[in-house]
Amino acid sequence: MIKQIGYALVLAISSVGLASGQSLEDSLALAYTSNPTLQAERARVRAVAEGVVQARAGYLPNVSASAGISRSRTESSGGFFNQANTVTPKNYSINASQAVWRGGRITGAIDQAEANALAAQENLRAIEQSILLEAATAFMNIRRDTEIAEIRNNNVAVLDAQLQAAEDRFEVGEITRTDVAQAEARRSAARAQFAAALAQLASSRAAYVRVVGQAPGTLADAPPLPTLPETLEDANEIAADFSPTLRQAAFAEEAAQANIRIARGALAPDVSLSASAGTRRDSSFSGDQSDSYSIGASVSIPIFTGGLNRSRVRAAAHSADQARLQVTATRRLVEENTTNAFNNLVATESVIASSSQSVRANEIALEGVQQEAFVGLRTTLDVLNAEQELLDARLTLVTAERDAYIAGLVLLQSMGLLTAETLGLNVDIYDPARYESGSNIDLTPWN
Prior knowledge:
disordered N terminus; alpha+beta; 13% strand
């Protein structure tokens, strides 16, 4: 059974889809360019940006043209003559209308659409950073789980040898059957833990494929983290300026304020101009033609709407208050997340230092216990316990190294800096402004 498990480990670690030495940057670049969730959000941003073009159309005239043709035949009989008349009437017309004054509804709609487009861009930044964090986490999880599986596999081999030695010593009467049973129990538990480690490794590989889109290769060491702030105050200041969640909330407030102007515009007069021209040919008989032209202006003034328009203004004002308060709540949440991420990073770095010391100390202790057991000063259980403590220390160190790296990335994300530019990814950076359909809005990041 142990040979089968060991063979499974070889398959899990060595049978991969990509070349060996795959770097974290390669994995993140694949996720950045091909993750379907990210691609879908980019499409949504492009759709939202079209709202700016649609809002600006309110400034421009509406022009339409129409044409029609039909054929009719009239026959009459009576008296000495039968009469038949066939006509093919043709109608052509062109109509144009131009809004002159709409009470600020057009400018309000444009400002609202621009704010919505910028809010969508900030949401895209948040999702980009979330996907990059997911990909990095999957990468580091595979490295951690691979090391854990190797440690567990080595532990099984050590306990196999320990059990064999215990059986040999029992045969010559140096130890009791209890010692042999203890060694056998530890080996059985180690095998179960090794099998669980392989299952966890397979799960981490599946998560990697989901985020990145390809099976992982033999993963290289993770590169050093970008420069991180030295103090919590610096981290919070950066987050206040660059957090996409906070920026999105601010743009949502701008959109809500613009919606008030749109609602108030319904209380004002609506002034527009219109013009039309048309011609009719052969309407009554062949050769008949009539032309018409018109130009006019219209003013529409709301007098009584049952309180509908004023209710809409109040509703828009309440929504703006909600958006304003949401900015405050979001700012507090961003500060909380940044604080937690910073403190978690400090804690994990401390765990690494203590775990490294624990590994060194347990290695020395195990060596001493083994020598003392050889001369009869320690029991088999003492050796097994020393081996278990060393194993636990090594596993803690491997997990702490992974946790510290991810904690650094989470801190970058909470500050809004976990971007392709910050990480130095070799990708074509997605720029929403490139996909604006005729819109000239400024998509420069809000500050």
